[in-house]
Design goal:
Number of domains of chain B: 2
Chains: A alpha+beta, B alpha+beta, C alpha/beta
Distance between the termini of chain B: 43 Å
Distance between the termini of chain C: 47 Å
Radius of gyration of chain B: 26 Å
Largest interface: A-B, 60 and 84 residues
Order of helices and strands of chain C: HEHEHHEEEEEHEEE
CATH superfamily of chain C: Bacterial phosphonate metabolism protein PhnH
Strand content of chain B: 5-15%
Oligomer: heterotrimer
Strand order of the largest sheet of chain B: 3-4-5-6
Helix content of chain B: 25-40%
Chain lengths: ~160, ~375, ~200
């Protein structure tokens, strides 16, 4: 469903070849880790933006999480996770998607709208609106890493025998 | 004659009301909130997620509150909840090599890239009750240090160079078995065994793992590595065609390496047992890896001589929701069955008595 | 590509539950008519009754077979994949559900999945669009779920289809089940039903 000519009457789903996929994944990761209130505030701060309608209403479901035997071997089904998804279409035809762990459908819908906006001229404004959130998440990760690092064991060798 | 009986509705309603009252406890004790359970009883939450086979800390915390702290009851609630949701698909395999490490230890190598990181552990505590906690204390700020940059490779990747350790093969493209979709058949492949063990009862797997150490299917295990931390879960939706990050999932992984004498096909080497569990649960991950290795007995041409090596025994009994369902159903009314048994026992006693009488007469 | 004019269920949970109830009732009382108004807008060319059933029964692990008329419009498979996650298959014998636009041009029933003795539920359920269903008709049905007998009119009902269905019934417990859908009404013919043409 990712090939075929673009058409005003139809949605053009985003192809994996999109060169900004990595940037979009980073955006999605940030929003997945955010609270609904943070995303809602970011969207509100953008002011006047194209209206969004649901392509598929926000809904909660399951994704089976897989692991690999030995970490790098054959895949196996570890257990499921609750996941909430939303898909919206903006008034100008852009589409936005969100898939998050958890059951917060309000958050997924706001994230889908921000995802749609980010793919157009609003990208710099979306990035700016989420800058504070990114900083909060980075600082939390940094603090955690520093605390963990303090529990690293420094071995020292005991001197044995006579001098 | 079978007589259906009906009744007890009022008693059941009242019992549930009493349960709700007892769950709340004395009114002068503040009610516990699910987020307190989620963040302050987080290892109980982790166990409910692992054995409920559903990653959702807030839901698991609520289930623990509803179950009054009965973790198997909470696991049952979570399992029931998951049946109400549609499944969107499966994730990309979680890449534990990219884990944001919160704990990582090895019992086989002292000096390894990334180091030994203790993290938040009960190890080395004195197991003395801390009465300060009863009073309520604010713990001191944790110490900080400069994090070491760079990857933290899995220990099994380090040993791979010399081929002294069995290599895993990804076998991508093969279907991945799912025991929640198709009934378990025996013999079961390792994918299905690992799924069953990952959601299996911690106590049952602990006892089985212990039994292998005590000689019932000895596997000569060493902890190659245990790591705990968060891994980004990724899912490829059909309409996007690229991996969407869903959010971080906390996991405990245990790589057990086991000395193996070799057989006709395979030279002596270290074989592997694997454990992977939602949340922080070292005991479960270690037990799982011991039992995983024990269940690979056939694969290595060894004889099945102990319970932990018998996959039908292990996989059929490791699920605590199934087990509790069948054990606890015994308390449900069996009035008719028991009446039938009573009649049978009376008849057998009469026959027994008559036979003894005959014997006595013959002896006289 | 997804047709922007199409939608899935307005309320995925409640709409699917209502459709499922109608299906369960129809299957429990073979040949009885169940009025049902789907609440979605599928791609043009895919009847709403079939679309509603598809979103109710299919998920990402479900293999769906579309007959040549439905398969000719790729938008239908895209819509199914987007809203249910289901994949389409070109092999009718591996389909859990088959959606049929034209009962007259359909492969024989035996070409679909028939299940096996251990898992007879693993057979194909055929969801067939028909022009009309009527309570008084040429078919006389009997069997489980029917007290004595029940009349049903299906238009079109191809020549020889009753014999095919009898052969399907003879495979019991294996065999396919049929769901027939016309505008606003469905009826079911499970593998246990006997059909006689009056």
């Amino acid at each position: 469903m990712t090939d075929g000519p673009a058409n005003d009457e139809q949605i053009q789903p985003q192809a994996s070849a999109d060169r900004s996929v990595a940037a979009r994944q980073a955006l999605m990761a940030t929003m997945a880790a955010a609270l609904y209130e943070e995303l809602g505030a970011a969207l509100a701060s953008l002011g006047d933006v194209p209206a969004a309608t649901d392509i598929r209403p926000a809904e909660s479901g399951l994704v089976m999480l897989r692991g690999r035997a030995g970490g790098d071997g054959r895949a196996f089904n570890l257990g499921e996770a609750t996941v909430t998804r939303a898909a919206v279409r903006l008034a100008d035809g852009r589409t936005g998607f969100a898939y998050h762990l958890g059951r917060d459908s309000r958050k997924a819908r706001v994230a889908a709208i921000l995802d749609g906006l980010w793919q157009g001229p609003e990208r710099p404004r979306v990035e700016k609106a989420l800058a504070g959130l990114r900083e909060r998440l980075a600082a939390a990760a940094e603090t955690k890493a520093r605390r963990v690092a303090a529990t690293r064991v420094d071995f020292f060798t005991m001197v044995r025998g006579e001098d | 004659m079978y007589v259906a009986v009906k009744g007890g509705e009022a008693a059941i309603d009242n019992a549930h009301a009493l349960l709700a009252h007892e769950r709340r406890g004395p009114a002068d004790v503040p009610e516990i909130a699910p987020d307190q359970i989620e963040h302050q009883l987080s290892l109980a939450v982790d166990r409910v997620m692992a054995e409920g086979s559903l990653y959702d800390p807030a839901l698991a915390a609520l289930a623990i509150k509803q179950a009054r702290g009965d973790l198997i009851e909470a696991i049952f609630l979570v399992r029931a909840f998951r049946t109400t949701l549609p499944r969107f698909g499966h994730s990309e395999p979680l890449d534990t090599a990219r884990m944001a490490i919160e704990r990582r230890i090895s019992a086989t190598y002292k000096d390894l890239p990334g180091g030994q990181v203790l993290g938040p552990t009960f190890d080395y505590t004195h197991r003395l009750i801390d009465f300060m906690l009863a009073a309520g204390v604010t713990p001191p700020e944790p110490a900080e240090a400069e994090p070491e940059c760079g990857a933290v490779p899995r220990v099994t990747d380090l040993l791979d160079g010399e081929q002294l350790i069995e290599a895993e093969t990804p076998r991508d493209g093969e279907p991945v078995g799912d025991l929640t979709r198709a009934p378990l058949d025996f013999p079961a492949d390792r994918d299905l065994r690992l799924q069953a063990l990952a959601r299996g009862d911690e106590g049952f797997l602990l006892a089985l793992g212990y039994s292998t150490q005590r000689g019932y299917g000895r596997t000569h295990p060493f902890v190659g590595e245990i790591r705990f931390g968060e891994v980004m879960a990724e899912f490829v939706p059909e309409e996007l065609g690229f991996a969407v990050p869903l959010g971080p999932v906390a996991l405990t992984e245990c790589q057990m390496v086991n000395q193996f004498h070799g057989n006709a096909e395979q030279p002596p080497q270290f074989t592997r047992g694997y454990g992977l569990v939602f949340g922080q649960s070292e005991r479960k991950a270690m037990s799982m890896s011991l039992v995983d290795r024990a269940l690979r007995t056939r694969e290595f041409g060894e004889d099945v001589v102990a319970p932990a090596q018998d996959e039908e025994f292990v996989l059929s009994h490791c699920d605590n929701v199934q087990a509790t369902g069948f054990v606890e159903h015994l308390k449900l009314p069996h009035y008719v069955d028991f009446q039938a048994e009573l009649g049978l026992v009376r008849q057998m006693r009469a026959e027994h008595e008559a036979a003894r009488e005959t014997l006595r007469e013959a002896a006289e | 590509m997804l047709d922007v004019a199409s939608t899935g269920f307005a309320d995925p949970v409640l709409d699917a539950q209502a459709q499922f109830r109608a299906l369960a009732d129809a299957l429990a009382r073979p040949g009885s008519l169940r009025a049902f108004t789907p609440r979605l807008t599928p791609p043009v060319g895919f009847p709403a009754a079939l679309a509603s059933i598809a979103l109710t029964v299919a998920d990402h692990e479900t293999a769906i077979w579309l007959d040549p008329a439905f398969a000719a419009d790729p938008g239908i498979a895209v819509w199914l994949a987007f809203h249910s996650g289901a994949r389409t298959t070109s092999d009718p014998s591996e389909a859990a559900f088959a959606f049929v636009a034209d009962i007259r041009a359909m492969p024989p029933l035996a070409a679909f999945g028939l299940g096996d003795e251990a898992y007879p539920d693993r057979s194909t359920t055929l969801v067939i669009a028909v022009e009309s269903l009527a309570e008084e008709g040429a078919l006389v049905l009997s069997g489980p779920g029917i007290e004595t007998d029940r009349r049903l009119g299906v238009t079109p009902w191809p020549e020889g289809f009753s014999a095919q269905f009898a052969a399907n019934r003879a495979l019991f417990p294996r065999g396919v089940d049929l769901i027939l859908a016309a505008q606003g009404v469905i009826a079911a013919l499970p593998r246990t039903t006997r059909i006689r043409e009056a």
